[in-house]
C-alpha cells in the first residue's frame, strides 16, 4: 500500500486505458427553465450526485470572477450541464441546499463561498480530495489520479479546455465532454470508495448525517 503514490506519476497515468465517459446522448446542456422541468423528477430523486462548476477565467490583476458560469450535476447514467442564469439558479437552489442529497466532487474548497455570493448555501457537499488516506495519500488528490488509482483508467485533463470561456454559448464539444467527465467521474469514484468501505470517517459521518436528517 505504501507504494501506491509512486505508481501515479504523470507518465504512468497516461499509459492507462481511456476513461469511459458518458456518451454525448447522455450529456444534457441546460439553458432555460423549460429544460429544467423535464429533468426535475430525475434530479430530485437522486441521493448521490456528482458535482462540479466551471468559471470563465480571469486574466487581469484585480479582476473579480463572475462565476460560476456552468454547474455540472451527474447521476450514474447522465450528466447535466447548466448554463448559469437566474432561472437555472432558482431551479438548482433546492437541490444544492438539500441536506438529504449528497453532492460529491473534487477541489470544492472555494465553491461554498462562490455559491454563497449567488445566494445559494451548499449543503451535504463532499470534497473527495482528501478521501484517499487508506491508500497512503495524505495530500489532496485530484479526480485524474483518483480515476487512475481506482479504475486503472486515464482521464485527460486539458489545461486549454479547463481555462476556456465557460460563459460562451454554445459550448464546444470538448468543453461539454470535459465538464461532464468531471462530475461523472467524481460520482463513480465516490460510489467505488463507498462500495469498498474505504471512505474516511469524516465523509462517512457526513453521509450518515444526511441520510438520517
TrEMBL record:
TM region positions: none
Molecular functions (GO terms): 3'-5' exonuclease activity; nucleic acid binding
Keyword Secreted appears in the UniProt entry: no
Keywords for this protein: Exonuclease, Hydrolase, Nuclease
Domain (3'-5' exonuclease): residue spans on this chain: 27-198
BP GO terms, sorted: nucleobase-containing compound metabolic process
Coiled-coil residue spans: none
Signal peptide feature range: none
SMART domains cross-referenced by the UniProt entry: 35EXOc
The keyword NADP belongs to this UniProt entry's keyword annotation: no
InterPro entries named among the record's database cross-references: 3'-5'_exonuclease_dom (IPR002562), Exonuclease_MUT-7-like (IPR052408), RNaseH-like_sf (IPR012337), RNaseH_sf (IPR036397)
Pfam families registered for this protein in UniProt: DNA_pol_A_exo1
Domain of life: Bacteria
PANTHER family, per the entry: 3'-5' EXONUCLEASE DOMAIN-CONTAINING PROTEIN, EXONUCLEASE MUT-7 HOMOLOG
Name of the protein in its database record: 3'-5' exonuclease
Classification lineage: Bacteria, Pseudomonadati, Pseudomonadota, Gammaproteobacteria, Moraxellales
Amino acid at each position: 500500500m505504501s507504494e501506491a503514490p509512486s505508481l501515479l506519476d504523470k507518465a504512468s497515468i497516461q499509459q492507462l486505458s481511456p476513461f469511459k465517459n458518458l456518451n454525448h446522448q447522455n450529456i444534457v446542456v441546460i439553458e432555460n427553465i423549460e429544460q429544467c422541468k423535464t429533468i426535475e423528477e430525475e434530479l430530485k430523486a437522486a441521493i448521490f450526485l456528482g458535482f462540479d462548476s466551471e468559471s470563465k477565467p480571469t486574466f487581469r490583476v484585480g479582476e473579480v470572477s463572475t462565476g460560476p458560469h456552468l454547474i455540472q450535476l451527474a447521476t450514474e447514467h447522465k450528466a447535466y450541464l447548466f448554463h448559469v442564469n437566474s432561472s437555472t439558479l432558482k431551479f438548482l437552489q433546492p437541490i444544492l441546499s438539500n441536506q438529504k442529497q449528497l453532492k460529491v466532487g473534487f477541489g470544492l474548497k472555494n465553491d461554498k463561498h462562490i455559491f454563497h455570493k449567488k445566494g445559494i448555501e451548499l449543503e451535504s457537499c463532499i470534497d473527495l480530495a482528501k478521501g484517499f488516506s487508506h491508500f497512503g495519500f495524505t495530500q489532496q488528490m485530484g479526480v485524474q489520479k483518483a480515476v487512475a488509482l481506482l479504475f486503472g483508467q486515464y482521464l485527460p485533463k486539458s489545461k486549454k479546455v479547463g481555462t476556456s470561456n465557460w460563459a460562451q454559448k454554445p459550448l464546444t464539444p470538448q468543453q461539454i465532454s470535459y465538464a461532464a467527465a468531471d462530475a461523472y467521474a467524481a460520482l463513480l469514484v465516490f460510489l467505488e470508495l463507498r462500495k469498498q468501505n474505504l471512505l474516511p470517517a469524516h465523509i462517512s459521518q457526513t453521509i450518515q448525517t444526511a441520510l438520517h436528517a
